[in-house]
Amino acid sequence: MRRPSSGPSGHTRAASSTIFYLPTANSCLGAIHRNKRWTIHTLHKGRKRYILIHADVIEKGENTRVETFVVGQDVSKGERLQWIVEGGQYKAGYLLDDEEGLSGSGGLLISETVIPGFEYSEHDFMTPEAFDSLIAPAQRDELSWLPKKASHHIVLQ
Description:
It is built from two helices and eleven strands. By secondary structure, it is mainly beta.
């Protein structure tokens, strides 16, 4: 299903789009990025620690809220099988062992469904400048691996 875009060009876009995403041990760090639109994530296999930076709800003079959670099959321990990242929130993560206490990861297979459909112009990576302005000094050392180098940035309009 396609519908007219709300953009100035008037082009049509998909009502939603879905991809499979498979980070592996060779590419286990997910660079922090965001989409302008909501993304529904569905886990198929593996485990990962997710980090969300709620850059979309910053109040003057307050720290940006940073949320972490584990996606995996063990819901009795609070692991998530499905989660939504609202538009404007930055997200990143790293792989965990497939089972707690055992070493090794076969990767993480998830589906990401973007509503309305994904458009590259609505996606960007966090810049070091945005990182410094959003993240409290006390949290910067722990999260310093998140921003990519400037050559990889696309500006979110």
